[in-house]
Specification:
The chain is built from 8 helices and no strands. The N and C termini lie far apart (82 Å). Helix content is 84%, strand content 0%.
Length: 231
């Protein structure tokens, strides 16, 4: 027997078609999330590299005031967003001293911003997790419904050969196969994207530490004095 999807769809009941449509919706949602996240990570990686190249000379000369306007040019970069917020807090603390030092303000802002960036990096990934865990069961439900329909039809006809029985069961099992086809890529890409996010967060945490070290080392030191020392 050949697998004819058009024939199978034509013989499905309304409930089975609804389940198949639900699985198709899950597949489309998963593909959308995967493509969007891959594009977003590629843009973020490129923007972060460009920002790092632009910010390095400013940090070497300790021209800290230039970090904020430089970071604002790289909207897609989580590193630029993080440095912008930290530097702004640091400069606020320098210009308007309070009970907390500028470095403490920058450190606290980095913690808050890292949490926010983590949520932004994982945007949509809960869809993949849900699809990966639910789609097999949805497909199994479709199979159960299809088998019930097949046997109900056989019972109504009064008698049927083995070929008709096996044909109905094989058509019902297509729902389970479809559910697995939707779930497996969703799980694989969820694990892949989770690893990407973990690596990005690790790199951001390391960069935060390096910026805080520079702030502690150069706090209160004018930029031109830093240049003279370097010379």
């Amino acid at each position: 027997m050949q697998l004819d999807l058009t024939h199978i769809w034509a013989h499905m009941g309304a409930l089975s078609r609804g389940i198949a449509a639900c699985l198709m919706f899950m597949a489309i949602a998963s593909i959308g999330v995967i493509v969007e996240r891959l594009i977003a990570f590629a843009k973020a990686d490129k923007a972060s590299k460009n920002f790092a190249l632009a910010a390095r000379p400013l940090l070497e000369k300790w021209e800290i005031e230039g970090i904020v306007p430089t970071a604002q040019k790289f909207k897609a970069s989580p590193l630029a967003s993080l440095f912008e917020r930290m530097t702004a807090k640091y400069l606020d603390g320098v210009q308007s001293p309070g009970n907390m030092t500028p470095i403490e303000l920058a450190r606290n802002e980095s913690i808050r911003r890292l949490d926010t960036l983590g949520s932004e990096l994982r945007r949509g990934m809960s869809v993949l997790a849900s699809v990966g865990s639910v789609a097999p069961f949805v497909g199994l439900l479709g199979t159960v419904v299809g088998i019930m329909g097949a046997f109900a039809g056989i019972g109504a006809a009064g008698s049927a050969g083995m070929g008709a029985v096996m044909s109905g069961i094989s058509e019902a099992l297509v729902e389970t196969a479809f559910g697995l086809m939707v779930a497996i890529p969703a799980v694989l890409f969820y694990n892949y994207l989770s690893t990407r996010v973990a690596n990005i967060e690790l790199a951001l945490t390391r960069s935060v530490g390096e910026l805080l070290d520079e702030m502690e080392n150069n706090h209160g030191q004018p930029a031109k004095k830093r240049v003279e020392k370097a010379a």
